[in-house]
Design goal:
17-stranded mixed sheet, about 260 residues, 2 domains, 17 strands, 2 helices
Length: about 260
């Protein structure tokens, strides 16, 4: 009888440990570094204001918005960190750790972020940054990404573009915006795929930057661009210039007879 009690207690202990592990969540703390920061809790209709210099715990489903001349950062329990620049809207879609591994999935609606991802150790661990037209998957790296709207964007044939519902956002009036995503990798590498995860756009390695346009164009340059040094208008100009240069280099040079 005593033996059966011991076995029962061991099994009960293991089941409790398993349940506790399965429900374990990664934790994240939001810090208001300066300016106006609002936090919309999951399931809530009204955001709360995080005072300058204050902090609060955040989790799955929470949406963060920074105001003009405002900055914030997220510090995670695994050592990773995300810095949010001014006029940025950012969602924590998934932040959890269970038997399958850790999953950190975020959505950048608009604005600029700087990301440091501590090296993931589990085979099935995931860290992803979604934008309106792409998904970046990493396992340990340092990079920046920015999203802006360019209503004057034209494709490489000079045609006006109309994003598909799967790769664009809509405002309250139903207007489809033309989103451009810029990704610049300082260390490590980022696998970039389409917003629906059906197509791999490419692997972005250290010291390179890519521009993903509303028509799903993928333009890569061998240069790390510090996005924090650019205003949205400056970034638009830089993107247009880089795409033009990229396309110009792709024009074949004919073999002349002389």
């Amino acid at each position: 009888m005593f033996k059966f009690k011991i076995i029962f207690l061991i099994l009960l202990f293991l089941s409790l440990v398993k349940f506790s592990y399965a429900e374990e969540k990664l934790t994240a703390t939001l810090f208001n570094d300066t300016g106006s920061i609002s936090l919309l809790r999951c399931g809530q209709s009204n955001p709360v204001v995080i005072a300058a210099g204050a902090s609060d715990t955040v989790g799955t489903g929470d949406i963060i918005e920074t105001g003009d001349k405002s900055k914030a950062h997220l510090q995670f329990s695994d050592g990773s960190r995300i810095d949010l620049q001014s006029n940025t809207k950012f969602e924590i879609k998934t932040l959890i750790k269970d038997e399958a591994g850790s999953r950190s999935i975020f959505k950048l609606f608009i604005g600029t972020i700087s990301v440091f991802v501590n090296k993931l150790t589990g085979k099935d661990d995931a860290f992803e940054i979604e934008t309106p037209n792409s998904v970046g998957s990493v396992r340990g790296t340092k990079f920046q990404t920015s999203v802006y709207v360019d209503d004057k964007y034209e494709d490489n044939e000079g045609k006006d573009t109309t994003p598909t519902p799967d790769s664009s956002g809509q405002d309250d009036k139903g207007k489809k915006d033309k989103y451009v995503s810029v990704l610049s990798v300082e260390e490590g590498e980022v696998e970039l795929s389409s917003a629906d995860r059906q197509k791999i756009l490419g692997m972005v390695r250290s010291g390179t930057s890519v521009f993903v346009t509303p028509d799903m164009g993928f333009y890569q340059i061998n240069e790390y661009i510090n996005l924090l040094e650019y205003t949205p208008e400056q970034l638009k100009d830089r993107t247009r210039r880089e795409i033009k240069n990229y396309l110009y280099k792709k024009i074949p040079v004919p073999n002349l007879p002389w």
